[in-house]
Amino acid sequence: MTHFGLSQWVDFARGTASAIDERAMKAHLAEGCGDCGDLANFSASLTNLCESMSEYAAPAQVVRNAKAIFPSAAPAQPKRALRIAAQLVYDSFLVPAPAGLRATWQVGWQALYRAGDCSLDLRIEPELASTRAAVIGQINNHTTPRETISNVPICLKSGRTVVAETRSNGFGEFQIEYDQQPRLQLCVYLEDGSKCFQVPLKKFAAERNAGAERLGLGSGQSKSKQGQE
Q1: Is 152 exposed, middle or buried (0-12, 13-18, 19+ CB in 10 A)?
Q2: Which of 3, 101, 103, 209 has a Cα at 20 to 30 A from 160?
Q3: What are phi and psi of 42, to 5 degrees?
Q4: How many CB atoms neighbour CB 96 within 10 A?
């Protein structure tokens, strides 16, 4: 007796099996094979469940987070993408402390870059006592502020390895959670990947974050300035 695999029963339940396979599988079920009957019932139940779930759209934020957790490859781009130079306009680490304040406790890093007509506002928020961090950003056109920049491919790379990736929402906003490591670059692809620019991301020391947690310090309390690796 010839049995059929799970993938064949899934195709059978979805109605995508060939006519020859469908006739053979129906005849096999008619012979009373218990194992294949269980697979056929499971595949049919799974197909019905998926069809019922397709009526409900997943929230955009959930989809972006899922894509960031399971990156498959770098965003599609031409082989000769035009690299745009990014200019650092603002760096929170370079801002002088207020008069009379000797030092400040700063959790995270904020920066503003400009590349052509595009502005990139970034903030990195490291987790206390952890090597993980989140980069939160927004892309906009500073020459025509009313123009929205949405669905822009963004990926986080370490060398040629893609660590995480996502796309900007309708407001040009995005968020990526990742494990910190040296030489991380945030890559932004514009105009269907024909242009791109890269900016480096700061790396924070987990042990110093842990020290802040033991002291009970928050981002708004004044103590000593956080170090940078």
Answers
A1: buried
A2: 209
A3: -65, -45
A4: 6
Indicate yes or no: pTM above 0.85. no
Contact 55, 47 (CB under 8 A): no
C-alpha gyration radius of the chain: 26
| Residue 69 token pair | 């957790």
Kindly report the number of other CB atoms within 10 A of residue 111's CB atom: 21
DSSP secondary structure letter of residue 128: T
d(CA 229, CA 227): 7
H/E element holding 21?
helix 19-30
- Is residue 71 packed enough to be buried (19+ CB in 10 Å), middle (13-18) or exposed (0-12)? middle
Enter the DSSP assignment of 220: T
Half-sphere exposure (CA, 13 Å, Cβ side) for 184?
24
pLDDT tens column, 150-192 = 889 999 998 888 888 999 998 899 999 988 888 899 999 988 7
Query: Which residue in this structure is represented by tokens 């052509």?
Result: 116
